[in-house]
Design goal:
The structure holds 2 protein chains of 2 kinds. Chain A has 25 helices and 4 strands. Chain A is mostly helical. The two termini of chain A are about 40 Å apart. By secondary structure, chain B is α/β, with parallel strands linked by helices. Chain B has a domain at about 10-45 and about 160-255: Rossmann fold, CATH 3.40.50. In chain B, helix 4 runs antiparallel to helix 5 (about 130-145). Chain B is globular, with a radius of gyration of 20 Å. Classes of the chains: A mainly alpha, B alpha/beta. Chains A and B meet through helix 20 and helix 21 of A and loops of B.
Chain lengths: ~550, ~260
C-alpha cells in the first residue's frame, strides 16, 4: 500500500464500535425479548398482543390519524412554500413566514398537547375568545391538530428546499408554448415536486406514528401504538416482553416508510442549472397566498400563545393579571432549575459528541480510500438510525443497560441522542465534505502535512458552517426530544421533557409552560447565535 | 533519470496500463498525450506514488522507489483544479509547506518564485478573487517552494483561455530550464504537447503508442493511431488557420 490511512481506519473502527454497542446489540436484544415468554421462547407474545384487546384498534387509530395529519401537513406546507418561492410578496413578509413556520421545531411535542388543551379545552384561551368549545380536544381531533403542528415545519423545509432547486425558466417555456395556467402549474411545479410531496407525506406519517409527546397529553381514550407501548413498559402493569413486541410492531411501519422514502428519492427531478426569472405579476395570486399563509401561521401561533399567557398570569383562567411569580417559583425550586441545567448539559454534550462522531464517520465515507463496502456500512447505519423510532431505541437501551454502570447516567442519554439523531447531521457532513476539493489531502501531504494536520489546517476551516449547523441540529433535538429519554432518564438525570411528563401527572401546568418557555428561549438563543456566526462566515467568504 | 520497467495497473480486473516501459532524462519536459480514458492520469499517479503499481518497477536515480510512499518520493504535483486552500490567502498558500519543512526554500528563494510567477501584487488576496491563470501560477509557486525532484502537472492548460495559455506555457518552460527540473505533463491536446515538451509520450488504450521528440512524431508517425488522431487533428487546425490567413492575404492583395 502506498497510502496507509491508519488514522481514518482507527476512526472508522471507533464509529463502528459505538454503533455496534449502542445500536445493533440493543435492538437485537429487543428482538430477542419479544420472543421470550413465561413458557420459554416462541411467538406466544406476538399472538397475545395481536389477538389481545386494544392493540389492533390502537394500530388502526395510529394509522388513521397519522395518514390524515400527514396529508394535511403536506398540503399546508406546500401552500406556505409556494407563497415564499412563487409570489412577488414582500421579502420581509416572506422572511417572517419562514421564521414562524419553523418555530414549533424548537419546542418539545409534549408541550404542543398541553398548548392545545389550554387553547381549545373548556377553559381554554381560544374557547373563551370564541365563546364555545370548537371541537373535542381529547382523541382524534386533538391528535390531528398536534401532529399537524409538529410535522408542518419539517414538511415545509423539505418542500421549500426542493422548490429552490426547480428551474423556474421552465415556466416561461411552458407559457410561450401556449400552456394553460393550470397546465403550467402542473407541469412546472407539481410534477417536479411529486417525489418530494410523496416523501413529505411519508416522513410526516413516520413522525406522527412514532411520536409519544402528543398522545401523552391529548390522546385521551383514543389509544395509539405509542401510548400502548408506553403503558406496557412503564404503565401500572408493565410487561416488558409484550412491550418488546409492540416496539417491534412500531418498527415495521417505520422501516416500510423509510424504504419508501429511499425508493421515492429516484423520482427527484434534477435540473442541470437553476435560473432566476422574474415571476409573472399576479396580484390576485399574491393576495390569496398572503392571506392563506398568514392564516396558517396565525393559527399555529394562536395555539402557542397560551404558553406565554398561562405562566405569566396569576391563576388561569380566574385571575388574569400579569405576574412573574410562576417563573420565579420555578427558578427558586432547585429541583426544577436543576432539571434545566441537566437539559443544557445533555444538549451541549450531545452536540459535541454528535459532532465528533458524525465528522469522523463522514470523513471515512467522503474523504478516504476505504473499500466501498466498508463505506456502505456507515451509510446503512445512517439509514437504520433514521428508521428506528426514539421510543424503540429508548426501550432497547432500557433492556440492555439496566443493571450496568451506565444505567441512570448522563452518558447513556447523550449516547442515545447521538445515535437516535445520527442520520441527518451525518448526511449534512458527508455532503459538505464531498464537495470540498478532492486533491487537498494529497497536496497537503506532499507539502509535508500529516493527515491530522491537514484536517486541522485545511479541512476543518472550510467546514465551519456545516459544523455549526450540525451542532445546532443536535443541540435543539436533544433539548426537545422525549420519546427515547423517557425510558432511560433516572431521578438524578431528569431532563426538562421527562420532567414535564412527571409534572403532568401532578397537573402542575404553570411549571410545564415555564419549562417549555425555557426550552424555547434557550433554543432561540442558541440558533440565533449559531445562525449569526454562519451568516457572518458566509458573508466573509463572499 | 526516471525509469519505468514493465509497470502494470488494473482496477477491478479492467486493465488500465499494460507493460509500461520508458525512461525520462533529468531536466526534460515530457508530455503524456492521449484521449480521455487512455490511462494517462493513472500513469501520472503511479509516478507520484498516489496509486500503487500491480507489478513492475519505478526507478529514480538508480533507486527502486516502487514501494516508497508518496510523501517520501520528493515529487510534487499541480492538480488540474489547483487544489488551493480557500481558507488561506495567496501568500499563505505559497508558503504552506515551509511550516512543515522549515528552510526547504530560503526566504530569498520564495521571493524569487513570487517574482518569477508575477504574484507580488496578489499576495494578500483570497483564492476566489484570482483568475484561472493566477490560480495556476499560485499553485506552481506553492509546489516550487517544496523543491520537487520531479514536477508533475495534470492538464495544466485545459482550464485556461487563449493568451494566458501561451504565457503559462512559457513559464513552465522557463522553470524547467532555469531549475533543470524534470517535468511531466498530462494533456489531451496534441498542440499543447508538441509545442511545450522535449519529448511526447503518446498513450492509447493503456499502451505506449509512440515515445519521441515532437519532430520525430510529426515526421515519422509509427502507427495509424498517431497518424489519424494526433497528426490529423493538427492538420485540420493548420489548414483552418492557413485558410484564415490566406483569405486575408488574398483580400489585401485585391485591395492593392
Amino acid at each position: 500500500m502506498v497510502r496507509k490511512e491508519r488514522e481514518i481506519k482507527t476512526i472508522y473502527a471507533l464509529v463502528l464500535a459505538i454503533f455496534v454497542v449502542f445500536l445493533a446489540v440493543p435492538i437485537l436484544r429487543l428482538l430477542l425479548e419479544s420472543f421470550v415468554g413465561e413458557a420459554g421462547a416462541g411467538i406466544e407474545n406476538y399472538v397475545e398482543v395481536l389477538t389481545g384487546r386494544g392493540f389492533l384498534t390502537a394500530l388502526g387509530n395510529s394509522v388513521a390519524v397519522s395518514v390524515c395529519s400527514a396529508l394535511l401537513a403536506t398540503v399546508l406546507a406546500f401552500f406556505l412554500a409556494y407563497s415564499i418561492q412563487y409570489t412577488n410578496l414582500n421579502k420581509r413578509f416572506k422572511r417572517v413566514i419562514w421564521t414562524l413556520a419553523v418555530l414549533p421545531m424548537l419546542l418539545p411535542t409534549i408541550t404542543y398537547g398541553f398548548a392545545i388543551i389550554y387553547s381549545f379545552g373548556r377553559q381554554g384561551l381560544l374557547t373563551r375568545l370564541f365563546g364555545r368549545q370548537l371541537f373535542d380536544i381529547y382523541g382524534f381531533h386533538g391528535l390531528l391538530f398536534g401532529y399537524v403542528i409538529y410535522t408542518l415545519p419539517i414538511s415545509f423545509l423539505l418542500i421549500l428546499n426542493t422548490m429552490g432547486f426547480i428551474d423556474k425558466k421552465f415556466m416561461v417555456v411552458s407559457r410561450v408554448m401556449g400552456d394553460s395556467p393550470v397546465r403550467t402549474f402542473w407541469q412546472t411545479i407539481i410534477r417536479p415536486l411529486l417525489g418530494t410531496l410523496a416523501a413529505s407525506f411519508v416522513q410526516c406519517f413516520f413522525l406522527c406514528f412514532t411520536d409519544y409527546g402528543i398522545p401523552a397529553s391529548v390522546g385521551g381514550e383514543y389509544e395509539v401504538v405509542a401510548t400502548v407501548l408506553y403503558n406496557e413498559m412503564l404503565g401500572s402493569i408493565p410487561n416488558f416482553n409484550r412491550g418488546a413486541v409492540v416496539a417491534m410492531m412500531m418498527l415495521i411501519p417505520s422501516v416500510l416508510s423509510i424504504a419508501l422514502l429511499k425508493y421515492l428519492e429516484r423520482y427527484n427531478v434534477r435540473y442541470t442549472r437553476i435560473s432566476r426569472i422574474e415571476l409573472k405579476k399576479n396580484p390576485a395570486r399574491d393576495a390569496v397566498c398572503a392571506a392563506g399563509s398568514s392564516e396558517i401561521i396565525i393559527s399555529v401561533l394562536a395555539i402557542f400563545a397560551v404558553i406565554f399567557v398561562v405562566p405569566l398570569v396569576q391563576e388561569w383562567p380566574y385571575q388574569v393579571s400579569f405576574t412573574l411569580e410562576h417563573v420565579r417559583a420555578v427558578l427558586e425550586d432547585s429541583s426544577l432549575s436543576g432539571v434545566y441545567k441537566n437539559s443544557i448539559f445533555v444538549a451541549v454534550c450531545t452536540a459535541l459528541a454528535g459532532l465528533l462522531i458524525t465528522y469522523g464517520a463522514a470523513l471515512a465515507t467522503a474523504r478516504s480510500g476505504l473499500n466501498g463496502k466498508l463505506k456502505g456500512v456507515i451509510d446503512a447505519i445512517a439509514l437504520i438510525t433514521n428508521t428506528i423510532p426514539g421510543m424503540v431505541i429508548g426501550i432497547a437501551f432500557m433492556f440492555i443497560f439496566s443493571g450496568t454502570p451506565l444505567q441512570n447516567t448522563f452518558a447513556l442519554i447523550i449516547l442515545c441522542n447521538v445515535v437516535h439523531f445520527f442520520s441527518t447531521p451525518y448526511l449534512m457532513m458527508r455532503n459538505s465534505l464531498s464537495k470540498l476539493n478532492s486533491s487537498w489531502e494529497t497536496t497537503a501531504s506532499l507539502m509535508g502535512d500529516t493527515w491530522i494536520k491537514t484536517i486541522v489546517r485545511i479541512v476543518t476551516p472550510n467546514m465551519t458552517s456545516t459544523i455549526l449547523e450540525v451542532f445546532s441540529y443536535y443541540f435543539v433535538n436533544a433539548m426537545v426530544t422525549v420519546s427515547a429519554v423517557i425510558f432511560i432518564a433516572g431521578a438524578r438525570t431528569m431532563v426538562i421533557t421527562t420532567k414535564i411528563k412527571e409534572l403532568q401527572y401532578y397537573t402542575k401546568f404553570n411549571e410545564v409552560f415555564v419549562l417549555s418557555l425555557f426550552i424555547l428561549g434557550t433554543n432561540l438563543i442558541v440558533k440565533g447565535i449559531l445562525g449569526y456566526m454562519i451568516k457572518r462566515k458566509e458573508k466573509k467568504e463572499r | 533519470m526516471l525509469e519505468l520497467k514493465h509497470v502494470k495497473k488494473s482496477y477491478d480486473n479492467v486493465t488500465i496500463l499494460e507493460d509500461m516501459n520508458l525512461k525520462i532524462q533529468d531536466g526534460e519536459i515530457v508530455s503524456i498525450l492521449g484521449p480521455s480514458g487512455c490511462g494517462k492520469t493513472t500513469l501520472l499517479n503511479l509516478v507520484l506514488g498516489l496509486t500503487p503499481a500491480d507489478s513492475g518497477q519505478i526507478i529514480f536515480d538508480g533507486k527502486d522507489i516502487t514501494e516508497v510512499p508518496m510523501e517520501e518520493r520528493g515529487f510534487n504535483i499541480v492538480f488540474q483544479d489547483y487544489a488551493l486552500f480557500p481558507n488561506l490567502n495567496v501568500y499563505k498558500n505559497i508558503t504552506y509547506g515551509l511550516k512543515n519543512r522549515p528552510g526547504i526554500s530560503s526566504e530569498k528563494e520564495v521571493e524569487e518564485f513570487i517574482d518569477l510567477l508575477g504574484l507580488r501584487e496578489h499576495l494578500d488576496k483570497k483564492i476566489e478573487q484570482l483568475s484561472g491563470g493566477q490560480k495556476q501560477r499560485v499553485a506552481l509557486a506553492r509546489t516550487m517552494v517544496m523543491k520537487p525532484k520531479i514536477l508533475l502537472l495534470d492538464e495544466p492548460l485545459s482550464a485556461l483561455d487563449g493568451v494566458i495559455k501561451e504565457s503559462i506555457k512559457e513559464k513552465i518552460k522557463e522553470i524547467a530550464r532555469d531549475f533543470h527540473l524534470t517535468t511531466i505533463i498530462v494533456t489531451h491536446d496534441p498542440e499543447e504537447a508538441l509545442t511545450l515538451s522535449d519529448k511526447v509520450l503518446i498513450v492509447n488504450k493503456g499502451r505506449i503508442s509512440q515515445y519521441g521528440a515532437p519532430r520525430e512524431i510529426i515526421m515519422t508517425p509509427q502507427n495509424n493511431f498517431v497518424k489519424e488522431f494526433i497528426l490529423n487533428q493538427l492538420e485540420i487546425k493548420k489548414n483552418n488557420i492557413f485558410a484564415l490567413f490566406h483569405q486575408n492575404m488574398a483580400r489585401s492583395m485585391q485591395a492593392v
